[in-house]
Write the structure tokens for this entry.
Amino acid sequence: MAKSINIRPTTSVYATYKNIRYDPWTAIAEFVDNSTQSYYDNVAKLEATKYWSGLQIDIEYKRDKVNGDYLIIRDNAYGMDFNDFQRAIMLDSPPKKTSRSEFGMGLKTAACWFGKRWSVESAALGSGIKYRTTVDVEALSKYKNEEITVEEIPCSKKEHGTTITIRDLNRTLSGTQIGKTKDQLRGMYRSDIRSSKIQILYNGVALVYETPKVLTEMLPDGSEKVWKKDIDFTFDFNGQTKRVYGFIGLLEEGSTSGAGFTLMRYGRVIVGGYENGYRPEEIFEKSNSYVYQRLFGELNLDDWKVTQTKDAFDLYGGLEDILIEKLKEVCEDYRKKAKEYRKRPKVTIKTGIDTLVNTFTNAGVIDEVEVTSIPSNINTDSSNTSLFDDEPEAETEVPAELDPTDIEIEGENGKRLVFKCNGEKYVFNFILKKNDPNSRWLNIGMKDDEYIIEWNIRHMFFKPYINDEHFLTIMEQFTFALALSEIEALRLSTDGKIDPSSIRMKMNDTLKAVITEE
């Protein structure tokens, strides 16, 4: 049995849809919109079935070198009865109520944009009837047919859902376009994916949306402040009430591509997604500002008008000016925090003592080495008596551009080394100073026949290299060699005084032995 559908106006219009301003993801989104809306409109009926486990939308892009690539979009939503099926195929046939399927044109325009020949097959839950039709765009344009044949096929009453197949593609997907399409879709349908009730798959792999991490600030009183808040406000515009609701927040890590507002409508992203967020300069300032890189949010603008391709809102006539003004008001404290907040990057300093010991032992410089923790009675606050009669250290002001306090250093403060060098036993308390950018880069002191070697890793000179673990390991070995050379030169002097060249000569010998061994 077959039925006919009158598809006036003239069918040649179908051929013009390939020129609509779509991207692959916005075109595919038209089909996903229909699937998700079918689910939301009939969720109670679907969930009442014994076998229901959630909406699943399969997007399959198949490569076929013989017959050409083709695209399939398949869902297990409620499906379409004949009236819905007719409305999906006919021109100028919008849905009865405002929803994600806004204009009643999406399936037709997107299918024609993608390919020259497409088919639709659908069965409504409990109907026992499946409808199927094929649209040949070039034939419709050439012969001006005003009717399309629809097959009516008996099926199980348990069967439901819709399948769209597009062939003779006008546009094919490959390379970076595939990755970008998946990223945009996962961002566009983040709300659905997060609900765990809807699964969208691309070639069998589920799309997953990762929620950005929100800035959590530790306050002076020890409590935490999570920089995220819900917003909900309305205003009048040309006799209509406009509502904006959702949340705003600050990113834990600044991101040029990840920041910005995502504008949504009925839970579906219109502007934003994985990039190109809504960032009016009145709120976000220039692209090099901290606000531009940290402020983000998801804002729902239900019932607001959108373009036909549903990739932008209609904000003309002064509407955008009011929207920006209202958003700026609710974001003011977040804009201020974004400007003033500086996250201190954490750097884990591994003392590298094992590497140091292995290097100098293998080179024959030291032997019989024991490594333990620094005793609690060793003072590490630079108050140890200097080994030499140095002038008192002058206080210096750290230039703002070299201020090292923007780096948080984690890790051990050092180790205690007991070893022999040239037959002499030494005890080195090898300490890393992390909190004083004003002190010398190296201090050598003595207490109870033990040496205190303080390497000031906070010294301004080391700031450009502090996150380079390899550099720090080498510098640690260099510091150890210098301290050992000074102490050995003093011990071997005959009159208690060191010739200016003695330290240099000892240093040369030590480094030469290490390099030769390596």
Observations:
- Residues 387-405 have pLDDT under 50 and may be disordered.
- The chain has 14 helices and 23 strands.
- Residues 469-492 form the longest helix (24 residues).
